[in-house]
Design brief:
Elements (H helix, E strand, L loop, with lengths): L1 H6 L6 H30 L6 H27 L1 H10 L3 H28 L1 H7 L7 H11 L3 H15 L4 H25 L3 H24 L17 H35 L2 H17 L1 H19 L3 H28 L1 H6 L5 H14 L6 H13 L3 H22 L7 H27 L18
Helix pairs in contact: 2-9, 2-10, 2-13, 3-5, 3-7, 3-8, 3-11, 3-12, 4-5, 4-11, 4-13, 5-8, 6-7, 7-10, 8-9, 8-10, 9-10, 11-12, 11-18, 12-16, 13-14, 13-17, 14-17, 16-19, 17-18, 17-19, 18-19
Length: 462
């Protein structure tokens, strides 16, 4: 009886349901983040070469982001349509969606592994590597890429555990892997003196643990829609819907990768490779502090999508309000933490006093308008939950490509400290992009949702 209530998003208090989904997902997202962040924390404290190694890791982030982009495209892309199908009581279609998503994830992972290994050297230099940092980046990435299949399977299929109402089980996926990574990192990095290679080996092992757990759960008896080889039947229409929905998350990650590349190259031009390392620290701090708001919006998506599929529009509106309020309060809290305790967060990744003092200034600039990111999160997550993929894509491209990338290139020409222009691009884009996303969502979606059981009149076809 309890499991039925947990899986029924159509009844009960929306705030409670969203929190019940969001809290495990937040911890799950934090654990997933620890795969890479724990590496950076330990690597940053390697004697004598820690900061250089950390800079090398920063140069590998576009690769990691691209892998995440394809995981979103093939895995997360199917979960909103999966939730809507469940809300309509069509478990057969939901099963076909999940199995086609699995097929896309495995094929995509193999292709990415082969291409990344083959073109690693020219890509790293294109992403901003120099002769001093290429060796550090390549030694880590060469091993890390061997776990691409494991990573994409674990993260991509984990969406289907959460979308069936098992958010706590989804949390186990990433906590198990992250826990192994935390234990193995100091052993491989310091005790065995493998440094960067040791961090990569620990990460791949931890990804294998997560992948095994996802496979074990989805083939077990608990989920109502289970993974089974005989159900893996290619369906062009479902694959098309999955790619259309996943394109939003894909573009969001790809645009992140593009902005990372432009930032690294611009920083190297105006300040040198040390500033690439500082940006790596700043982005790592943002990743830690952004976990909760990501968990809130991810947790709300299947709840809002389910109620939209069931045509319970008053509950959809309540879910949008709840998500927006939670996101605003949290981002405001994070901004206050950065203002008061910047040195604490920077010291997690570096023990170089001179670098750390320099990084504080840039961290403050970067987070100057962080609260406006709540508007971006709220707007885009609502579009995703309701199947309005094109709108979410538009605002992701608008913020990262139309705003961040040009600002990163242009602002250094107009400031006394050119390097600061790269960091100022973030708050300016937060204000403009976040406001545009939220206002559009409010005017074109929220206000047009009636309190009847009729769906929104401008819903995009899935």
């Amino acid at each position: 009886m309890n499991s039925i209530k947990e899986n029924d998003f159509g009844h009960g208090n929306m705030s409670t349901i969203i929190l019940r989904q969001a809290l495990p997902l937040t911890f799950s997202s934090l654990a997933a983040l620890l795969y890479n962040l724990v590496d950076r924390i330990f690597i940053g404290h390697i004697k004598d070469v820690g900061f250089d190694c950390l800079t090398g890791i920063g140069l590998t982030l576009p690769f990691v982001t691209i892998i995440n982009a394809f995981t979103c495209l093939f895995g997360q892309g199917g979960s909103p349509v999966f939730s809507i199908a469940r809300g309509r009581g069509d478990d057969g279609k939901a099963s076909r969606i999940m199995h086609n998503s699995f097929m896309l994830l495995m094929a995509g992972a193999l292709v990415l592994t082969i291409l990344s290994q083959a073109f690693m050297r020219p890509l790293l230099y294109a992403f901003g590597a120099g002769d001093n940092t290429y060796g550090y980046a390549a030694s880590y990435l060469r091993i890390y890429l061997c776990g691409t299949v494991l990573l994409m399977f674990a993260n991509g299929m984990n969406f289907y555990i959460s979308a069936q109402g098992f958010a706590q089980m989804a949390m186990v996926t990433t906590f198990a892997g992250a826990g192994i990574n935390i234990i193995l990192d100091p052993i491989f990095i310091f005790a065995l003196d493998l440094k960067l290679e040791g961090a990569a080996i620990a990460t791949v092992i931890s990804q294998a643990v997560s992948a095994f757990w996802v496979l074990f759960f989805l083939t077990g008896n608990k989920p109502s829609i289970r993974l089974h080889p005989r159900h893996i039947i290619p369906d062009a229409k479902i694959c098309g819907s999955t790619l259309a929905m996943g394109f939003t998350g894909f573009i969001m990650e790809i645009t992140n990768s593009a902005s990372q590349i432009v930032c690294n190259r611009t920083l190297r031009r105006y300040g040198g490779e040390d500033y690439v390392g500082i940006m790596t620290i700043v982005n790592s701090v943002r990743a830690i502090l952004g976990v909760a708001v990501t968990g809130i919006t991810m947790g709300a998506q299947p709840v809002i999508g389910y109620n939209y599929g069931a045509r319970l529009n008053s509950r959809v509106k309540q879910g949008i309000r709840t998500t927006s309020l939670f996101a605003f309060v949290y981002t405001l809290f994070v901004w206050m933490l950065i203002i008061i305790f910047p040195s604490f967060f920077i010291s997690l990744f570096s023990k170089d006093r001179e670098i750390n003092e320099l990084a504080v200034r840039y961290l403050h600039i970067f987070f100057m308008a962080y609260v406006f990111m709540s508007l971006q999160y709220s707007g885009q997550s609502t579009f995703m939950a309701l199947g309005m993929a094109r709108r979410a894509v538009i605002f992701s491209i608008f913020r990262k490509i139309i705003l961040v990338v040009p600002l990163t290139i242009i602002l250094p020409h107009f400031l006394a400290d050119p390097v600061s222009g790269v960091f100022w691009a973030e708050p300016v884009s937060n204000v403009i992009g976040g406001s545009a996303s939220f206002i559009t969502m409010y005017l074109t979606v929220y206000r047009k949702l009636s309190d009847s059981r009729d769906p929104a009149p401008d819903k995009e076809s899935l």
